[in-house]
Amino acid sequence: MKALVYNGPGRRSWTDHSDPEIIAPTDAIVRIDAVTICGTDLHILKGDVPEVKPGRALGHEAVGTIVRAGDAVTIVRPGDRVLVSCISACGRCEYCRRGAYGQCLGGGGWTLGHLVDGVQAEFARVPFADTSTYPLPASVSDESALLLADIIPTSYEIGVRNGRVGPGDVVVIVGAGPIGLAAVTAARLYSPASIVVIDKETVRLEAAEAAGADRTALPDQAEATVWEVGGGLGADVAIEAVGVPETFELCAELVRPGGRIANIGVHGKPATLHLERLWARDVTITTGLVDTWSTPMLLRMLAAGRLNTERLITHRFGLQEMDEAYDVFAHPQDSGALKVALFRE
C-alpha cells in the first residue's frame, strides 16, 4: 500500500509501505476513505516530536471502513463505516476508567502516527477498535465527520472546557488556524459576551469572522482590542491555539486577574512564564492532550444538524495527492488553506 512516511526532520514521502496486520485481538484494519492533515503533523516534520522515528506513517484523523477485525472486537465489524479517533483507549487502565483516554497506560493515548503507524495511508491498523472508533450514521458524511477525529473535540475539551468558558465571558483566541477556528465554534456553544480572535494573517481573521468571532485583530492591535472589549480588564479566558512561545506569552498579557489561560497548541520550544507578574493575579493555566470523551456527544450534535464542521475544510484532494495537500496545508499564507481533506475517490 501507499502511505505518507516521515523520513526525519524536513523529509516526507508518499511511498510504498508495508500493509498493516492485526497484532492484537482488539485491533481492526480500516480502509481509509477520508483523511486530513493536522498542525501536529507539521510539528513532527519540524522535528518537534522526537518520539516519532523515521519510517513512521503519519496521521491520526480519518474516516474509514472496517475490513478486518480481531477476535476480541465485538462492537464494530467488517463493513462498518467509522470515525477513527486521534486517541486510542485500552478502556481498562486507571486513566481510561476515569475518561482520561489521552493518558491511557495500556498502550493507547496519542499513538496513531506517533508511536505506531498512522492513518495517512490506504489502510491502517487501529488498536483497541471497540473503544477507539465510532460507528457513523448514514446521515453523516465522511467529510463532516472527519473533523471530529481531533480538532473539534480538542478545541472543545482543551480550550473551551478547560478554560471554563461561560455565559457573558470575554474570550480571546490567539491563533486563527483550524484549531483556533474550531475553538470559536466550540466557545459559541456557551454564549460568551464576546469572542476576539488574534492572528497575523488577515485571510485567517476573515475566516474567524465567518466562523462567528465578534472582533478580530492583528498581534500589534491585540492588547488595545481586548482591553476595549473587556472594559479595561482583559479577557476572562485566553485560549492559545498556535504552539509557539510568542502566542503563549501574549495570552498571559491579555488575561485579566482571576482569568484562565487554556493552552491547546503543541509546543516544540520553551515559553517564558512571567510568574513575577502572574503570581498575584489569581490566573489559572491549563494544558492538555485531548481525551475525546466528548466525541459521542459531538457526533450526536453533528447528526442533529447542531454542529457545522465542513466550513473549516477549504481544500480537497485525492488520497494519491498527499504531497500536494501537505504543501498547500503547510503554506496557508499562500494557499489560504484552513483544513484539507483527502478522499479515496
UniProtKB/TrEMBL annotation:
Essential cofactor(s): Zn(2+)
Keyword Repeat: no
Domain of life: Bacteria
Signal peptide region: none
PROSITE patterns reported in the protein's UniProt record: ADH_ZINC (PS00059)
Any GO molecular function: zinc ion binding
Keywords: Metal-binding, Oxidoreductase, Zinc
Domain annotation Alcohol dehydrogenase-like N-terminal: ranges: 25-130
Stretches assigned to the Alcohol dehydrogenase-like C-terminal domain: 178-287
InterPro entries recorded: ADH-like_C, ADH-like_N, ADH_Zn_CS, GroES-like_sf, NAD(P)-bd_dom_sf
Keyword Oxidoreductase: yes
Pfam families: ADH_N (PF08240), ADH_zinc_N (PF00107)
Similarity remark: Belongs to the zinc-containing alcohol dehydrogenase family.
Name under which the protein is recorded: Alcohol dehydrogenase
Top-level taxonomy: Bacteria, Bacillati, Actinomycetota, Actinomycetes, Pseudonocardiales
